[in-house]
């Protein structure tokens, strides 16, 4: 059987499977791709041939938001992408099964850090954005240093790929010293009044293993740093956020480039992690040669509906859904909640399915202590590991009568959204995110 015939058979078998899944109202973001790869293990070769430019995004946090933001800016072009976050090789293949065309202007894909080697074998990336590296799913990835070594080897196999890296992360910035790729850096020059994330600071230089000293922190091990011995640092940034002003429902982000041009962007989502996402995407657009005014207008009109800071209006209150899947993400959400003076309830939905990571000990590396507990009506704890997150709240010295364990997440949602509050924060882990937001959408719009 020729490779072309095998590819055609794989494509149409996968389409048949996708059609069947839709009939039964099942999610088809990964399984059709798995079928295609079973028939033709080089199924992605055709995607590489059909895309004029390929952009990949990898890292621990920010991949899906970054992917969707780039797609939004480039709308009007013919794009192949995995917008719903199915970021392993099965998911990338499924995106082509769903949207099969003769050619694309761009292939834009977020890629799981552990899948970059598989994807890189078939897709010749023109650009790769590396967002950050944090501890995540330790039972799958192992400790962070091991994962970074693997990603480094994966990028070495892509010598013609242009890198756009978050240099505020020492783990990411070390690539600048070790790789020969063309590299553009981005970062922040602001200091957060952050809540300290325990056990997440970096003490040793990734280049020489001596002490690394921070002048400023943004969050986790991100910030302005320098090694006392080898001089490894992130002083020079090609694109830099020099100021962030949080408004009521947005943040005003000021970016400068290495030619001292200044750009002001009113981004409709708050959080310093979003400022990093915006800066990385803006850097990419300038490398692509796009008009900065048009880019800024697109960023300011960006709307996201996949449970990343997504708002629903219900009975004179807001239901805000935010994905929380690792220590840094949960700590940053805690920071946002701690600066919200409105009367509120919080619903944690903690799962330990395969895609979440079976080991939920990561919650103990996160700071979940809200500094404005007096504004919080109730803490609801749900999901497969509801008792674990409830225990964490107990260790945060939350009053026992405020902690409510409801294992069934639908019942928990039903109860939480009826609280007499101004806003309900719903914080699901990865395998709960789509069911959570779809159920809330159904309740709100029935």
Residue stretches low in confidence (pLDDT < 50, at least 5 long) are none
Oligomer: single chain
Helix-strand makeup class: alpha/beta
Number of helices: 15
| Amino- and carboxy-terminal Cα gap | 52 Å
Most strands sheet: 9 strands, mixed
Query: On the 0-100 scale, what is the average pLDDT?
Result: 91
Tell the overall outline. globular
Instruction: Compute the number of strand runs.
Output: 17
Q: Measured on Cα atoms, how large is the radius of gyration?
A: 22 Å
Provide the β-strand percentage band.
15-25%
- Helix content range: 25-40%
Order of strands in the sheet with most strands: 2-3-1-4-5-6-9-10-11
Write up this protein.
The protein is α/β, with parallel strands linked by helices and 446 residues long. It is 36% helix and 23% strand. The protein has 15 helices and 17 strands. The chain has helices at residues 3-23, 31-39, 45-50, 63-73, 89-98, 116-120, 138-141, 144-156, 170-178, 272-287, 292-300, 327-338, 386-395, 409-416, 430-445; strands spanning 51-58, 79-81, 104-110, 127-130, 162-166, 183-188, 212-219, 222-227, 239-246, 251-257, 262-267, 308-314, 317-322, 344-349, 376-382, 403-405, 423-428. The strands form three sheets. The chain has a nine-stranded mixed beta sheet with strand order 2-3-1-4-5-6-9-10-11, sandwiched between helices. The chain has a six-stranded mixed beta sheet with strand order 12-13-17-14-15-16, sandwiched between helices. A two-stranded antiparallel ribbon has the order 7-8. β5, α9 (170-178) and β6 (183-188) form a beta-alpha-beta unit. α10 packs antiparallel against α11. It is globular and about 65 Å long. The protein starts with a helix and ends with a helix. The model has no long low-confidence stretch (mean pLDDT 91).
